[in-house]
Amino acid sequence: MTVPRIALTAPVGPSSAPLVVLGPSLGTSTILWEEVVPLLAQRYRVSAWDLPGHGVSPKASAPFTVTELADAVADVAGSEGDSSILYAGVSLGGAVGLELLLAHPRFVSAAAIVASGAFLGGPAPWHERAAKVRAQGTPSLLSQSAGRWFAPDSLQKRPVIGGRLLHSLSDADDESYALCCEALADYDVRERLAEISAPTLVLWGEHDQVAPESKAEEITAAIQGSRSQRIAEAAHLPPAERPHAVAEALRRFFDSITTRRNDA
Ligand SMILES: O=C(O)CCC(=O)CC(=O)O
């Protein structure tokens, strides 16, 4: 395994504000968070990262684990000079969030896990998807992914961002996408959730079939003090489908951490 390389956008927001780092779901890019960033940047410095071979991150050519992706995020976010960060990630980006809380508990002071879970299906479906992408490319996933990503009305209501996200998928590097699938094949932190003590918020889309409410409940049942919140009219990509609802939930959550810190 080799540590994958990822790119982080330059932070936007007040220069002395706490840093919020936002992570993508598989097949998407920083576009996923584009409408949330300005809403959070009123109070936070906000950066987003791209998966290997997606958006502007370099392609991957060797296997990596979700833990190693989390190490890469901690490494690039650490180069911003903050002693700790706040984090939110969607699906694979949420899995990275749980790994960050486990492996970098001093650096990640709170995380929001969005449309994700402690286990995302296991080896068989991910190896199957990796093989399909290596044989036929990411464009072969478009219609099925669109069906899973968006709630019934989301694409009609938000065709521009929906279309751009689907372009992120067809533009993603095939081998990097396949390597992300293989990282998810081996991902399972269910037995380790109770080790997490940092504040954790779980957001789930009411129409999400990839990470439904049961996955959110599995996390909140195991992490003491964590809580979950449903995002209505969203499926697997709530930040793009309901940016204001997601930004509001994140802002309340992060404000509760930073207020506590300021009062201490
Ligand atoms: O979104 C992820 O990071 C993993 C789940 C997934 O692949 C969703 C999809 O494309 O159908």
Automatic annotation (TrEMBL):
<dbReference type="InterPro" id="IPR029058">
    <property type="entry name" value="AB_hydrolase_fold"/>
</dbReference>
<dbReference type="Pfam" id="PF12697">
    <property type="entry name" value="Abhydrolase_6"/>
</dbReference>
<dbReference type="InterPro" id="IPR050228">
    <property type="entry name" value="Carboxylesterase_BioH"/>
</dbReference>
<feature type="domain" description="AB hydrolase-1">
    <location>
        <begin position="20"/>
        <end position="249"/>
    </location>
</feature>
<dbReference type="GO" id="GO:0047570">
    <property type="term" value="F:3-oxoadipate enol-lactonase activity"/>
</dbReference>
<dbReference type="InterPro" id="IPR000073">
    <property type="entry name" value="AB_hydrolase_1"/>
</dbReference>
<protein>
    <submittedName>
        <fullName>3-oxoadipate enol-lactonase</fullName>
        <ecNumber>3.1.1.24</ecNumber>
    </submittedName>
</protein>
<keyword id="KW-0378">Hydrolase</keyword>
